[in-house]
């Protein structure tokens, strides 16, 4: 038994034997008594006692000597739930049971008397200001606790009798309807019958619902200007009108609290901002003190301990990693991380009655790298180490009076209860423990997946990050490759591959343009019989076909190594990258931007800033100290800007006894490329240095595709579209044909012509071009291959066009489904859909189409496919607004296998959108096919 546990067992045993009638004044056991009883040095006993008190396991009574008592025994004997664990005497504990703390909801807010003191005072003043309080705008990053703060303001108002006990607190997220201003405004203010199409009856809005209480408008910057005008008029006068009314004759007494992540001066109208007298800014979690961060982490673990009804042991290194991993997701992302860890720990310790353990080994890499981030900040690391001590923290369930931080009730879904119930059920069936764990692992995975789906909007999407540095058409192609890899390898690392592959492809295309030789550092690094190499070869073919170029073998091996590295759960040994620049915070800013664009802190990158007044020797000492706290046996790559920073390598190499290389003229793209190759390709130091020495940045546009267009147009080939006027339909057809040709790497010019003087126009075109095909409503007299418009719509014409242009069919294109179908469906859905985004829904509809064809084992004609997919897209919208169609036909006449095939294909919607179509919708579609 460890020394700390021996001391705790002694205190627990003695506390249990303490007579209740003697619980008066200062009670407990001193360090000297425990040292003599256990034969341990007094200094060591004092150290362990302080650690146990910080963990909340024992209560400390101040005075001389300092005494310690078991917390659980004290709570049981006095009938209290203790928040803090230090008092003057037992009577002070009894006094703490007074309702004073409960009368101030802000007392429960971590930081209310520290970093958030000014904001709390502002909030109190806003509630108490006569006659009805001050409307308030809360500004802060995602996840800092704006919603929690608004709730606490409301609770404080009830305690101070500014609101009735039954007063409403109404929440509305303005982003829900931001693309439909009319619907958004009608939701807030209500509408009268006939105000718009579908308004069959009058309906009260949120303002009326919140009368006498608070209306909390989250993401208020999504309000359109006309909505902001109606809100500030209501704030000024207390009157409003429903949508469709002309007179503002309605009245309500509502305190408006808004929340936004944006700068109010740029995201809101100036008039609206002036109407809100109280503006509060909540600082991000990263800017709060070390003590507050640790208190928040402890509170979140208490949340989980309360749910699991067991103590949770958390390693010191784990807590350090969590502190270091705090980023743009703030408290919201931190809470998700802790929920994830506790869910996994609960599964691992399902058979342990003592509790569960969260240790460093089980951390995902993105959290584990937080330890590296914290280590780079020596002051923060020292503060955390001093506060935590050296032993694990044990978080015990706080007790029945503890309020969960998310305000969840007992009726809320509790993963732990579900898992425990399933364990009892499965054990009753005689199933082995190993098989039970496998079954439960699936439950935990579903829980975690759902948890992170809710947080998907915390950071930029991979596509958004990529579009900041590479061209959209390249990203489009990379997304197709990523989906292909996901299906081909049954993998789940879509985003990670997409990011790394896009950056590499961009760099490769630029190398091709500048005719640089391919790097050889990875050649032969991948086993020749591996699946990764096989898939990489297929990807090389896709690149070659798309960009009309030859992909070298070394590039294929790089892609294979990328796929292989993504299959590994972790990569501890890697080259450490040090970004060193002159200036107060230049390097820090560059690294922060690069890490945000890279989408992770899961890479060893350190920032060293050199203010102009600092000597190089001081920077060398700082750099060496930072590197000594991280594993860097594979070497150090210094990315410096200029001057003395470029000459620190030899001294650093001698001091650390590790290889060091230096590259000057550092830039953000160079840092990104270094991170990508060190993290995802796992290059050694020399390979990394050689590959970066000739790096010239990422291409901001799709140059090679433009070059391919020039090559194609140089040979004079064109396609002609024929319609009655050469305008209108002909232009739409032109756009459709161009899309088909681009999709197979044949971006030929497409020229629309009308029926008037058709032959004359065609002869003029033929004088300077070679017409490879004519598509449209009339076959020309000239000997030109002709494809009727109905053949294009039907699908067979698309293949005929590709045969004429490319000399063969494109199999990958056929697998994705007809572009004609996709284009025409998207055009129709743009007209029919109000709430759903056709661009987002269309890929899912094409996946539905592909699954349906695979399930039925026979293709549908294109016109029927278009009709079916448009109906399905509208059915999804009806599902969202909860207005499904009702089938009036005879079910007996429908073939069951058609309905089942449709349901199986429609599972894509529940997987991706969490939407389930009504049964009647399947009956209508079955009738179509």
Separation of the first and last Cα atoms: 72 Å
Q: How are the strands of the largest sheet arranged?
A: 5-8-11-4-12
Biggest sheet descriptor = 5 strands, parallel
Low-confidence stretches: 98-102, 407-414, 448-461, 568-572, 699-713, 808-817
Task: Please bin the fraction of helical residues.
Answer: 40-55%
How many helix segments?
41
Shape: globular
Strand content: 5-15%
The total strand number stands at 23
Average pLDDT rating: 77
What does the radius of gyration come to? 33 Å
Helix and strand composition category: alpha/beta
Describe the overall structure.
This protein is an alpha/beta fold and 929 residues long. 52% of the residues lie in helices and 10% in strands. The chain contains 41 helices and 23 strands. A five-stranded parallel beta sheet has the order 5-8-11-4-12. A four-stranded parallel beta sheet has the order 17-16-18-19, sandwiched between helices. The longest helix has 22 residues, at 433-454. The protein is globular.
Short overview:
With 929 residues, the chain is of the alpha/beta class. Helix content is 52%, strand content 10%.
Q: What key phrases describe this protein's structure?
A:
single chain, 929 residues, alpha/beta, five-stranded parallel sheet, four-stranded parallel sheet, 10% strand
List the helices and strands and how they pair.
Elements: H1 3-16, H2 31-38, H3 42-54, E1 58-61, E2 67-70, H4 71-78, E3 86-87, H5 90-95, H6 117-128, E4 136-139, H7 146-159, E5 169-173, H8 181-189, E6 190-191, E7 203-204, H9 206-209, E8 214-218, H10 225-237, E9 239-240, E10 250-251, E11 255-260, H11 264-267, H12 270-275, E12 278-281, H13 290-308, E13 312-314, H14 316-324, H15 330-348, E14 356-358, H16 365-375, H17 378-388, E15 393-395, H18 415-428, H19 433-454, H20 462-467, H21 472-489, H22 494-514, H23 531-547, H24 553-566, E16 576-582, H25 586-598, E17 605-610, H26 616-628, E18 636-640, H27 649-656, E19 660-663, H28 668-679, H29 685-693, H30 703-714, E20 717-722, H31 729-743, E21 750-753, H32 758-768, E22 770-776, E23 786-788, H33 789-794, H34 796-806, H35 811-816, H36 819-832, H37 838-856, H38 862-881, H39 896-905, H40 907-912, H41 919-928
Parallel strand pairs: 1-3, 4-11, 4-12, 5-8, 8-11, 13-14, 16-17, 16-18, 18-19, 20-21, 20-22, 22-23
Antiparallel strand pairs: 1-2, 6-7, 9-10, 13-15
